[in-house]
Structures are given as structure tokens and as C-alpha cells.
Amino acid sequence: MQQRFVYEYLKDLNQSAAYRRTWYNCAPGSLCAAASRLYRNVKVNRAVQSAMKDRLASGRIRADDVMRWLWNIVIADPNEPIQYRRVNCRKCWSDIARDPTDDPNPDCGFYFGEGIGEIYHSDT
């Protein structure tokens, strides 16, 4: 049962949840105390630490990969894949054929010369 507790603990690193999954008939009031007591057991704690070291050594979790992934999130530019653009409406340049790349006409009565908003998805 202790090996089962170690296995369950490594899933989410939650003592109470691992204890509940290992011993189904545990009273809710004593769950935290029992889980903590079992985790402090020398054999169980050594098994958890050993399994954590094995997990790190096997390459399942590498700190460098996690830091690189987090850094890429921090420096990501949200405008790369999706952009919000202001383009001219169909009334901006009514006397000329509408070119979507033209800027909005500041004298346009519709949308107060600001044009309309358009979301542009770049091809990735």
C-alpha cells in the first residue's frame, strides 16, 4: 500500500488526494493527518525522493525545458499571428473603387472617419 501511495502521490504531488486514492475507506476528518503521517514515514519519503530523482534524470521533466517554455510565453508577441487593423469602410472613398489597403477617409461621415475594425489572421 505504501508503494501505491508513492505512485499516486507522484501523479499530482498532493498527499491527501494520493491517500484517498490509495485507501478508499478513509474518514474525511482524518484524511490530512493520515496522509501527512504516511508521507513522513522514512521509507515512503525515501521512495518519493528517489522517484522524483529518477523522473528528473529520465528527462520527463527538465528544468531547462520548463524555463525555456516559460520564457517563450513571456516574450511572445501577440501581434504575430493575429492583428487588429482599422480599414476603410465602403463609404470612405465612394467615388473611387474601394481598395482595402487604403487608410480610412478622415472626412467620412460613417464611423467618424476612423474606418472599421478588422481582425487579420496571418498564415502560419
UniProtKB/TrEMBL annotation:
This is Terminase small subunit. It comes from the Bacteria. Pfam families: Terminase_2 (PF03592). Gene3D superfamilies: Terminase, small subunit, N-terminal DNA-binding domain, HTH motif (1.10.10.1400). InterPro entries: Terminase_Gp1_N_sf, Terminase_ssu.
